[in-house]
Every structure is written in C-alpha cells, then in structure tokens.
Amino acid sequence: MRELDKEKWNLHNSYINLPGIFYTKQPPTAVRSPKLVIFNHALAASLGVPEQLGVFAGNELPGGSQPIAQAYAGHQFGYFTMLGDGRAVLLGEQITDSGERFDIQLKGSGPTPYSRGGDGRAALGPMLREYIISEAMYALGIPTTRSLAVVTTGETVRREKNLTGAVLTRIAKSHIRVGTFEYAAQFGAANDVRSLADYTITRHFPTIAAFENKYLLLLKEVVKRQASLISNWQLVGFIHGVMNTDNMAISGETIDYGPCAFMDVYRPATVFSSIDIHGRYAYENQPKMAAWNLARFAETLLPLLDGDENQAVGLAQEEVSTFWSLYHHDWLAGMRAKLGLHTEEDEDSLLINDFLQLMEQCQADYTETFKALTLDRNDGLNLFSHPAYHQWHERWQERLGRQPQSRSESRALMKRHNPAMIPRNHLVEEALDAAQEEDFTKMHTLLLALESPYSYTAEQEEFSQLPPPASCGYQTFCGT
Ligand code: AMP
Ligand code: MG
User: Fold this and answer.
1) How far is CA 18 from CA 21, 192, 193, 303, 344, in A?
2) pLDDT tens digits for 406-421?
3) Domain containing residue 84
4) Domain count of the chain?
C-alpha cells in the first residue's frame, strides 16, 4: 500500500504501546472504485487533515499510519461476548495544532481477525445515517464521536438484499469502551486491566494520574460523564437503541450509531430498534442501563481498588450508586432550563413531572411541545386545549414570576435548551432514500439546518412538520 506524503497528517499510535492482546495490526482492505459522497470540511480543518479520497476509502494509508483493529468484548443485551473491531480499522491518532488527540477510524473497511464471519463491510444508508445523527448530536452540544467522510466503494454488500457499499471515517476522543475493560479482565493477564486503566487515565483524565486512589477516581469520572451524557440524551429525546457495554465509550462520548433515533411523541416506553424485542433499551430505561453498564465497568476495576475484595466491592458499589444522584441533578438542571427556570425550588420536580405526564397523556410531540412553550405559541397541539394544561400553565407562569429574571431572560434560556430542530426520523429517511439514488441535495439541506439547532431560523421551521401518523411505528435496524 502506497504511503501518502506526511504533509498535513500528524498521526501517532499510542494504543500500540498497550500489551499485544489489545489489538491486531490490520490494514484496511482496498475497495474497487471509491467515490466521496460527503466530506466534513469544518471538522477536517479543525483536525488539520487533508481531503484524500484514497485514505477515506482504505485504499491508501496516510503518512505515519500504523493501522490496527482493536480487541474488545461486551455484554450484548445482557450476555457477555467476545467482539472487537470486526469491520473497523484505526488508522491512528491525529494530534491537532492545539495538541488534542483524536482517533481516525474507518468503519466498513474490510474484515479483521474479529469479524466472526462477517464481511467487514458497511452499507451506504447506515453510514450516512451515522453521519447525520452524530453531527446533529454534536451541534446539539452533546458529547459524541463525529463523522469526517463517507465514501462509496463501488462494491455491493449483501444483506437481505444487495446494498451500496460504503466506508465511514469516524473521529473519536478514543475508542476505549467499557467492553475493552471487560475484555482485559476476562481474557488478559493479571496486569492488563491496570495497563488499560493507566493508559485511559493518561489519555482522558490526566489530572487524576498522580493520586494514590487514581483507579477509584477513574471510576468516579466515568460515572460522572455517563450521568451527564445520559441526561443529555433524555433531555433531547435521543434513544441510542443498543446500549451494550461495547457501545459505551469511557470518554463519555455517544458512540455507535446503529438503530438510534429521536423520539417524536413523548412516550417513555418508546423503542425503535427492531432487535430490541423486550424494550431493554427503551427511552425510559436508558439511565438504568447506563448504571448497569457502569457496574460491569466497576467490576473490571475491583482488583485495582483494594487488595481486600470486600473492601473493593464496597468502594465500587458506592461509586456506581452515585450515578443516580448525578443523573437526576443533571437532568433536573436541564429540565429547569427547558422551562426557563433560572432558580431552584423544591416543587420544580413536581411541576416538570406533571407536565411530562400531560404530554404523555396527550401524545404530544416532545420537541415541538418544548419549542411551542419557548415561542409562547399555545396552539397547534392537542395538549394546549387540555383543561389540565391551562392549570399547569398557570402554575408555570406563577413559578416564572417568583424568579428575579425577566421573561425575556427565561425565553433566551429556553431557546438555548429547546432545539428548534432535531434529525426527525422521517426527514432522515427521506434524505437517505434520495441519497441511494445519488441525489444528495436533501441530505445537505438537512445537515445545514441541523448545524445550529438552537438558532430558530425560518428554514428550520420548514423542517418542523410533524411526521405522518404512519411513521409512528417507526423501526430502526442495526445496519450491520
Ligand atoms: P455493533 O452492533 O455495530 O456494535 O457491532 C457489534 C460487533 O459486530 C462489533 O464487534 C462489530 O465490529 C461487529 N460487526 C458488525 N457488523 C459487522 C460486519 N459486517 N462484519 C464484521 N463484523 C461486524
Ligand atoms: Mg458497537
């Protein structure tokens, strides 16, 4: 494979300093006839990487690349399995001018030793879907991996039918997962979890490195980041869909956009994923599942927490249990902001929960409802003609009146927390359908509008149409 000039790439690979069990050297497999479908110029500029089709197709290696596939395991729907990058290759870590380090990973780049019989490839639809939703999450201010490029391969991938093959370039603070720790604990040598933990601390939590109880602090930080992340998801109505432990990043970024989707009508039991038969990863279960995953993470750290196993278990349990208070704190703060509340009152939880209940009862659209409150537009939704809404509205107005901030300050706060736009399922599907036919205009228009979800522009208003009732039973697929 030809190496390109070192011009702009500033690639390193610190991951290969970990013990050998954590990865396999693996170049991407070249594709027949690559074509760039979308390229994220702004992200490329911030990373300082050039637009090189050959690299994003896996046909050429950027200078300095030492490509690897990472090993990891994971609990999938509750069951432990050996996994690993079965269709992804890490080209390296780009160090930006400001000194930040980002993984550059190709997804759909061919088989690896972890492919477990899979073809190592990906289809265009799911890769564009990941591009759109991850970039929308970024614009919403939610920690996430990002998408740099999607390339079609000129090859067909066989699923239930023949699909257009594609490769996504994913950017992440790292690809260390809860499942990476589980892999080390289950299959590694005595010191492998420690090596991984030390590496993780250096990479993501350098300020705790000098502390004697740094492993407990690592757990604390990871719990904190997940509590914040999941509260962010809940606040915008994002449903990840497959919160297996291999899909939980230690960095606190949202990762692995498979069957994810945003909730339209507020219904806590909403599940979109076709494979989530029992609703394990339903909207309302996401905090519980995050806590469950964190417990799996904590278990891997036990030998590092204390020489005495009982002591270690006690410490781990205590730390994991803080998830709930952290989560509720973040969620409540976010909900107060959504309702324009600058101050805190004990009764706020009641005010918020009564409103959510009313939304559920009226089958109100989650995003549109908060948007209507923000714009003081009490029409267009069933909810607003419900007698209980008028009572609630009065309570809310009284509550707003008890804080020193003006109504316009409240409105400004609400605008910063209630997106005017989310990547609605029917819009995403429309854009993807057109893209299949090589018409990318819808996708670009959608992406542009999603770039500034809190700016309440006229274009966004056009995207605010509620989905047709037929899409209520919307289903998502993993896209594997
Ligand atoms: P995911 O559901 O995307 O989190 O993937 C779970 C596991 O299956 C990961 O180890 C993936 O690398 C692997 N995988 C998914 N799709 C493929 C594929 N087409 N070929 C090989 N491995 C795959
Ligand atoms: Mg995954």
Assistant:
1) 8, 8, 10, 19, 47
2) 999 999 999 999 999 9
3) 6-175
4) 1
